[in-house]
Amino acid sequence: MLVDWFIVLASIGYLLVLFAVAYIADKRAERGAGITSHPYIYALSLGVYCTSWTFYGSVGRAASSGLDFLPIYIGPTLVFILWWLVIRKIIRITKAHRITSIADFISSRYGKSSRMSILVTVIAVVGIVPYISLQLKAVATSFNVLKQYPEVIAPSYSPPIATVADTAFWVALVMALFAILFGTRTVDNSEHHEGVVVAIAFESVVKLLAFLAVGIFVTYGLYDGLGDLFAKASAYPELVKLMTFEQEGAYTTWITLTTLSMVAAICLPRQFQVMAVENVNEPELRKGAWLFPLYLLAINIFVLPIALGGLLQFPDGAVNADTFVLTLPMAHHQEWLALFVFLGGLSAATGMVIVATIALSTMVSNDLVMPALLQLKWLGLTERGDFTGIVLFVRRSSILLILFLGYAYFRFLGESDALVTIGLISFAAVFQFAPAMLGGMFWKGGNRSGALTGLFLGFIVWAYTLLLPSFAKSGILPLSFITEGPLGIELLKPYALFDLQGLDNLTHALFWTTVINVGAYVFVSLYSRHSALERVQGALFVDVFRYADQGPRSQIWQGSALVEDLFNLLVRFIGRARADRAFSNYFRDRGLERRRVTTADADLVNFTERLMAGAIGTASARVMISSVVKGEAVRIEEVMKILEETSQVIEYSQSLEQKSFELESTTRQLRAANERLKELDRLKDEFLSTVSHELRTPLTSIRSFSEILSDHPDLDEAEKSRFLRIIVKESVRLTRLINQVLDLAKIEAGQMEWVVEKLDVARVIENSMEAMSALLSERTIQLEKDIWANLPAVKGDRDRLMQVIVNLLSNAVKFCDPDKGRVKVSVRRSGPELVVLVSDNGRGIPWISREKIFEKFHQSREGLTDKPHGTGLGLSISRQIVEYFGGRLELVESSNKGSVFGVFLPVEEGKDQIQVGE
Amino acid sequence: MPQTVLVVEDEPHIVDSLSFLMKKAGFDVFIARDGDAALRMVESCPPDLMLLDIMLPRRDGFDVLKSVRSNPAWRDIRVILLTAKGRDVDRLKGMELGADDFVTKPFSTKEVVRLVRQHLGVEEKTA
């Protein structure tokens, strides 16, 4: 069943699904419902790190050198966990400067140097093309292995003579198609390729599932779990070696591989693409930082078991270990599993190729082709109206070109090394970016000359110690190049440069490239001139978090440009609609009217430059902008120097101002505190004298009449008894006053003893009214009540609440209409509050006094001359009681027809019904 | 013609007792319940002596005293201040404003009657 056409059909089917996923994601994004900002999608898209190299090659490496496959995954794990902040900084810089690729990143840091971006692009292309060809090779090899089903043959792959009959060719073509369709829809690369990212995330899932499926099949299908597998393997001494570190130099290899892969996880163009350029939100990184390592862990769990299983099943070495993932299911007639594995490998390969070609094509078009085209005056491009078509054409051609190069490399050189070795050569190439990139982010001293020199020399040494020997191995160069050195010069042997021996080839290469690259970068940076722009860009990169709010302002343009010119320039690169939108937004954000502004300020020039950078790269954008802006850029050193001095003076005077302001504020606070103390003292004094006054008043009456009675025994009986009644009444008043003053003192001192319980307010009111009945019966007063049923409970002290109600009722009785007195009590619920309203039909209280009446000893003296005075404390105490239970006591309403007092009590939470015991 | 005493006081029971005492002592008694009423009373028929409470509604005792003393025609009116606060500041302030004497509540009825008589130059009757 697994014949050619079926496998091809399945592959096409899979790719169609991929197209559909990408298409749907793009459509969603157009509707503004993109999902790439989801942290899982982000983490999965980072999984593009795991290529067919992981899928097939890890097992191969594990089978030949044991745990050596692991560092490739430990590296990125370390990066995402330990260098989390570094990545955040990269993302921040990328967004702030609308960086479109790693070449853009590095060249932008070093003064938007076009030489820099060309060099980076060349290195990236030369370094990554073998990697792409590796993917093509993996797909072709796995296809050829699979179609032999059920035979498991030693896959010695030899490409057919005719290219059209070659699987790899067609694979490359389909991938190019995909990359063109979904990677070059718009010119602005700082915009996101939603479809691509989601498709990549989807592929990450497919390859993980396929790999886990084989792992489980081998571990639990062919053997009884890991224990059984390892036990069986332990019987063979050569297999035991794979599980330990016994090989010589294993530690240096580990360190080398870990270092390489740490850098690769950031500097590989495709990783930079998904990690920084496609990143939608910085916060995704937080989750990605642990999800991605988790993904790496998952895809590595079964590497060693599969390798051991393969070595046990095919002991004679007839089967290439790189194909164990595929051949193990085949040997056991699991055709569906085998097909699934093939598709998993295909997904791993396509994912890498698509992202890598998009990233590389952006670099090639922005940093190589476009600047060159713009330089060629005779093409007349700078006068041309619309650039978008050209940019897209260049980018699409670049994709085809890169895939063609990959295919060519595969056709002519692909047979020499195992998968892993080719991959590592690529890693070592992008490793050359690390000093310039990381150094540039943290060291303002690094400059363009240093970075260029370091990068260039590093690249040369890389080519000499890794690339050329691999050519030699595949026969393009004589093998003596490796064994005897070029022209027989032993000192220049590429694997033992300057007689450095005892290291594996990779560590050897890494050592020399690092020494020379970093050395040149630092040395030249220290001893060469920094241009103004470099210095500014350096500061903007290193201090990106400080400048984040201001946006990148790399160039201070002294001259002026016409808004119209800038606009027309922009239209040529990003199209009229988008340019229109961008300018409209720009002016709207600044509250300007676009029609009124004719001369562009530096801000607008920078804005335009950044927009163009998104389309054609920073270096080209700078060239284009300077063609429009008249006049020279100010010498930045001078500006910086002036700014620095000014800012120092400003800082100093600001700190002085700050100091004196603080002093002033402290003085003010002290004064206020002092005033407050005085005020409190005065209030206390006032209170004491008021209390004294209030107590003395009834006492005066009592004493006077007592003395009168005792001094005038001849008074008539009626008068005697009237005087006695006064004495009794005033005694009662005095007692009440003393009680209330004590109450108040206790509440205010926090010494009141409260008996807090859940209260049925309706019942408290009934009780209060009963207590009042004696007083009410003395007068003809109509008392109404309106109490809702099923009222919720409130928290309070029964006696105190009664005190409040009685106080309000007696006030109402006292102040209601003297002839047709009417007092009404109503209780109802209003939202979270229980409301008790006590109203009377008296003369009302002037609205202006609505708060005064709650002050201590405030007494209504009007119209009451013949009535016994209250103490002036009742309302004050009542309010304090109600407030103690979180409620309010207010005069709700007052007019000449009467007044209404309201008690608002918070309803006991969670209990809607009364649950009062007794 | 008996001498007149104006009782200025807002507490009804205290008014009661003072007017009883003054009448018994043989004076004619007028009553005012607040500061404004007191001044109106002084204007319409100036008394020989005022028993003037300090804490009064609307216009306090000090204010009334000041007005009385500011008019030369009323310079001869004796004024005895009544206070329930019993603070020295009040006593001092009252004396400065030209009060003739000062009584602190709760007062001794005998003392009040004695003071009134003293200031009006009336010989004490034998009790």
From TrEMBL, chain A:
Catalytic activity from the UniProt record: ATP + protein L-histidine = ADP + protein N-phospho-L-histidine
Transmembrane segments: 6-25, 37-57, 69-87, 116-134, 167-184, 196-223, 249-268, 289-312, 336-360, 387-410, 422-443, 450-472
Histidine kinase domain span: 690-909
Key words of the record: Coiled coil, Kinase, Membrane, Phosphoprotein, Transferase, Transmembrane, Transmembrane helix, Two-component regulatory system
MF (Gene Ontology): kinase activity
Keyword Membrane: yes
Pfam families referenced in this protein's UniProt entry, alphabetically: HATPase_c, HisKA
EC number from the UniProt entry: 2.7.13.3
Main location, first listed in the record: membrane
Topological type in the membrane: Multi-pass membrane protein
Superkingdom field: Bacteria
Location in or out of the cell: Membrane
Family: Belongs to the sodium:solute symporter (SSF) (TC 2.A.21) family.
Protein name: histidine kinase
Species the sequence originates in: Kiloniella laminariae
High-level lineage: Bacteria, Pseudomonadati, Pseudomonadota, Alphaproteobacteria, Rhodospirillales
From TrEMBL, chain B:
Residue numbers carrying 4-aspartylphosphate: D53
Domain Response regulatory span(s) in chain numbering: 4-120
Phylogenetic lineage: Bacteria, Pseudomonadati, Pseudomonadota, Alphaproteobacteria, Rhodospirillales
Pfam families in alphabetical order: Response_reg
Domain of life (superkingdom): Bacteria
Keywords: Phosphoprotein
Name the record gives this protein: Response regulator
Annotated SMART domains: REC
InterPro entries, sorted: Bact_response_regulator, CheY-like_superfamily, Sig_transdc_resp-reg_receiver
